[in-house]
Amino acid sequence: xxxNIESHLSxxxxxxxxxxxxxxxxxxxMEQYRELHAESINSPETFWAREAEELSWMEPWDKxxxxxxxDAQWFVNAKTNMxxxxxxxxxxxxxxxxxALIWEAESGETETITYAQLHAKVCQFANGLTDLGVQKGxxxxxxxxxxxxxxxxxxxxxxxxxxxxxxxGGFSAEAIADRLEDSQAKVIIxxxxxxxxxxxxSLKENVxxxxxxYQNIEKVIVCRRTFQPIEMQAGxxxxxxxxxxxxxxxxxxxxxxxxxxxxxxYTSGSTGKPKGILHTTGGYMVGTYSTCKYIFxxxxxxxxxxxxDIGWITGHSYITYGPLLNGVTQVIYEGAPxxxxxxxxxxxxxxxRVSIFYTAPTAIRAFIKAGDxxxxxxxxxxxxxxxxxxxxxxxxxxxxxxxxxxGGRCPIVDTWWQTETGAVMLAxxxxxxxxxxxxxxxxxxxxxxxxxxxDGKECAPNEGGRLVIRKPWPSMLRGIYGDPQRYRDTxxxxxxxxxxxxxxxxxxxxGNFWIVGRLDDVLNVSGHRLGTAEIESSLVAHDAVAEAAxxxxxxxxxxxxxxxxxxxxxxxxxxxxxxQALKKHVASTIxxxxxxxxxxxxxxLPKTRSGKIMRRxxxxxxxxxxxxxxxxxxxxxxxxxxxxxxxxxxxxxx
Length: 654
Ligand code: WT7
Prior knowledge:
Blueprint: E1 5-6, H1 19-22, H2 30-42, H3 44-52, E2 63-68, E3 71-76, E4 79-80, H4 82-86, E5 99-104, E6 110-114, H5 115-131, E7 139-143, H6 148-160, E8 163-166, H7 173-183, E9 187-191, E10 193-196, E11 199-202, H8 204-213, E12 219-223, E13 237-239, H9 240-244, E14 256-257, E15 261-267, E16 275-280, H10 282-295, E17 303-306, H11 313-325, E18 329-333, H12 344-352, E19 356-359, H13 361-370, H14 373-376, E20 385-389, H15 395-405, E21 412-415, E22 449-452, E23 465-469, E24 479-480, H16 484-491, E25 499-507, E26 513-518, E27 523-525, E28 528-530, H17 532-540, E29 545-555, E30 559-568, H18 576-589, E31 598-601, H19 615-624, H20 638-653
Parallel strand pairs: 1-28, 5-18, 7-8, 7-9, 8-15, 9-12, 12-13, 17-18, 17-19, 19-20, 20-21, 30-31
Antiparallel strand pairs: 2-3, 4-14, 5-6, 10-11, 15-16, 16-24, 22-23, 23-25, 25-26, 27-28, 29-30
Bound molecules: 5'-O-[(S)-butoxy(hydroxy)phosphoryl]adenosine.
5'-O-[(S)-butoxy(hydroxy)phosphoryl]adenosine (WT7) binds near residues 313, 417 and 418.
């Protein structure tokens, strides 16, 4: 029996890189991409050594790679420091007085910090941390708003070899306590509160509650941001200003081993307790540097903006580290995309003349729903390159992003990667790749990606299977903190010595990789395995639909029935007729097999705090009428009750 994931949606639109872009791009033709990619796969040590040599090392490596699957060591015995490479390296060049960070507060206030100023602040705080007894290898938990001090804290940790563990500021006290416990952190850096849609969110209060559960913390360093009243526990808690008081703005970055741990970042995955993904120093540095350079084609004139939060891997690799390694000017924004309205991002792009803009499909779909008049009211002509990350981008959302935001002139880099991979794995070369909307296109240099069936055989073109990486890469995770067995079981047990990503994908006849959804979410309808992404994209391509999620529901005959949840655009109203039209639309664009048995037109979908649709909850609601498991990663818990009621109501009516 054929157990592969089927694919029925095909995309024929092609967008070649604009000549004006290619002309100045580092990689300007597919021949050049193919040649370098071939070298990077056949002689990875040559390729990566050349990339690494563009950065500063305090001691050279003896060997580029030592690989005993699944354990990799990159740049063996080399010494370096990430903070040094992000800051000090630029101080002797024209970048010394260049803006490193342009921070925009939610209130609209801005602050610009040059490389030299950022360096001084990082050194000062590194000295402060050292005086508090923080040493190489110690874990430091950060629970911070999107303010420059968050980036300063990260760079100060890496400067002294302390291992940071960032917890997204929207997570609860329990989430903080779990992560403190697992990482055995000894210091916390936080703030009194943060601003979100004009309201104060209490951060220190959550830390206090977490410390009722986990008590092994020596110091809590608190930034003032909202100036709301907070409690400070004598002896344990101190203000950021006091940690910095009297400290020198000079500090020699500590030479660290390339394989010294750099940070832990917890990722929830679909089930089980969060995994502490461990990244180390040298390989992660080279990976984030190199992907920024080629995929975002960063150069000295760029003003780059990634809308992620530092609580996610995107905020680590493509806010703090990759861009600063490349010496660009970047915007960081404190608040929500819809404050005061959904025009805020376009306002920021116009105000700071942003040239590279990197955001998530979930945000793009929200902007589409909010209407074109908002971006149309702003001058977006400074943009030259757009990017997306986090989920497959539906082709219709891609088209909108390309036309309405990019004015038809900006390539879009759809970047596929994971917390575990540390850096982008699949993405176009913006000056070279012909792009079809909806595909992350091809592997980055050094990435040996393939799609395999259950027996480990490579799938034929357009046959869906499991996405794997067959060779180690510098920024790969080095383990799950404290749990080597779970590391092997989760990522390395499907195929001997190949990394399994947990995503389903297919490769088209031109070699483009299409992510069809998480393997856990694949539907099985009458023996046909269907990914979620294509059916969802078909729905989003209908005029009435802003966003969709598709899941399987137990069915006596078919095994699973296709059930769709859809959010309508604001000028459409839910009714029976529209439901029928949507079912028909899916059947005609994909095939009768994918035709939803039920469609729920709902006002909101359950999402993680990073904006991913939680299909597992929808599945559970359909199967059991309730949600039992952990919902702390939900962005808005009230969505779930509403969905339960909607499903209940429809079942009763039937
Ligand atoms: C999962 C990883 C990587 C930073 C943000 C998410 C999905 C991510 C894409 C993309 C299709 C994507 C995958 C992946 N994903 N980017 N461009 N196209 N799917 O990091 O939370 O570790 O999630 O996000 O399913 O496995 P993460």
